[in-house]
Write a structure and sequence with these properties.
The structure holds 2 protein chains of 2 kinds. Chain A is α/β, with parallel strands linked by helices. Chain A is built from 16 helices and 14 strands. In chain A, a hairpin with a 1-residue loop joins strand 11 and strand 12. Chain B is of the alpha/beta class. Chain B has a 9-stranded parallel β-sheet. The two termini of chain B are 23 Å apart. The chains are: A alpha/beta, B alpha/beta. At the A-B interface, strand 2, helix 1, helix 8, strand 11 and strand 12 of A face helix 3, helix 5 and strand 6 of B.
Amino acid sequence: MTSNSAPNSLRNGPDETGHYGIYGGRFVAETLMPLILDLEAAWRKCRDDPEFKRELAYYFKHYIGRPSPLYFAPRLTEHLGGAKIYLKRDELNHTGAHKINNCIGQILLAKRMGRKRIIAETGAGQHGVATATVAALFNLPCTIYMGAVDIERQQPNVFRMKLLGAEVVAVQSGSRTLKDAMNEALRDWVTNIQDTFYIIGTVAGPHPYPEMVREFQTVIGTETREQMLEAEGRLPDSLVAAIGGGSNAMGLFHPFLDDAAVTIYGVEAAGLGIDSGKHAASLTGGSPGVLHGNRTYLLQDDDGQIIDAHSISAGLDYPGIGPEHAWLHDVGRVNYVSATDAEALEAFKLMARLEGIIPALEPSHALAVVCKLAPKLPPDHLMVMNLCGRGDKDIFTVAAALGVTI
Amino acid sequence: MSRLAEKFAAVKAENRAALVTYFMAGDPDLTSFETLLAGLPAAGADIIEVGMPFSDPMADGPAIQAAGLRAIAAGVKLPTVLAMVERFRAKDSTTPIILMGYFNPIYHYGVTRFLADALKAGVDGMIVVDLPPEEDHELGKPARAAGLDFIRLATPTADDARLGVIADNASGFIYYVSVAGITGAKTGDVAAIDSAVRRLRAVTDLPIAVGFGIKTPERAAAVAAVADGVVVGTALVEVVAGHIGMDGEVRAGLVATVLARVAEFAAAVRRHGA
């Protein structure tokens, strides 16, 4: 894991109270505060414990299959006719996405804390599958909260979670998507405080979650650094990753934040277009607020009520974003841009045909931006895109969007 | 002396606990709610909590979640809530009003502006569920500086050290959440509540009100015997919900029925007061 000690580093956050600039914090009900403080203490201890690191490294290698390759994409590069494009293949991880990196880390922590039951929220179902997987591996009962709307559009993952032994609870409140699943998971946690560990799937929630999830995901960026040095003898010129809550992006970006020559792009989901109001781009189309334990950019109305997000990708369909992204946006280190549903679909099809890889709809948003940027760049420009998930789960959604009946 | 302190003193002089009632602002519609609000003191509510609706109430159970959605659908926004309190205050200068809700609508409105407008409307204090002592600088500290009480929640998950953190800088009263969980959930054990209230008395001189899981007048009476105040929320919000038809129309007699139920809780608190 990372060691952040340089005084002017962009990698020092959060501060002692869990803030990144004005973002982050611990905006939770008092009932949860003793647990949050316990969790923070346990996390601090594990983070610096060589035995914990050794255990984590073991599961990363032998269970997840890390390191994931950094693959030069020749046909995509040729097709776009500009920058040299590399794909960080986190879709090859066990369970098919980057989510498992964080789940292994958190369940090892849960075991050390003596917790007997696991809960999680899920949007696309990738985090739910990853959580159900580690719960099976470590023999702990597991309950996954998933919005009823998401259950409809992600049936394969619902079935996977059940096969893995998890109970999947359909959340009927609010917009019945990811934010409501998170509300319901928090309600479960506040009710079952004695024995339950809540595995949050992204770099959001109350401190220490944003920091903890980031630290488990920085393996993506750390590997990328080493692999690019090995392949090209230098660092990449640019990084591109999709952002819902922002864990795959933070995992890739964080080890490069102090390398000023590396240009970084975070891609939000623009849904039907930012102007349509039907999108999930909280940085581009939102404003600062407080939800789910942290201050960050949110989609909200003039009364501070949270607005439903929209994206073709269930994994990006969230009205907020991790607090560290909010801060990196304000300080200008990362360029936050967006891609629409239609652009992501085109990119999805392109990747399948050119590279023989069916990407998830989430990284398809990142690819849509790669398609815009790469043609304008010279052939010696090294661009890394985080291919954070595979698209098997999305084929029904994509078929429906393309008007095909499977 | 603040209106809250005066009310707790007056109730104590009657040798009983205070009845604190919770309703969601504007539920089920603005007119019904304002009639209800105006009738609460006569029905026996000593202190009134007014819920500020929020789209994502992470500490609330289904009854109060639904009430919040009804209020939002009825067009309730933060300025609407303040205006209703202002009209209530014009006719009642002694019953304390506490706003209860979540931080985001207040933050979005602007903390300084909110405190000024709340004070002007005649609000006495606030309970903001997602602002623990660790985030006191956000609203608690400026609220106290403005002369408004910021009521802290204490829970069964707190050890003695944590109770000290909660009591430090608390004002108005301490709201003891008698069960770990969401509003309207299971009921806490009275002996456990009694012991928790005693632990709290060791760290604070503020009055202690107990809420969450107080579903019946009998239950209110039992808790009234060990606390300075009893908070009834979900049980009353459910009476409101019971007067709404499938198509959303408000049935006749809603206000009278709800106030009659409040009177039963008020009688219980008076009958079995400490």
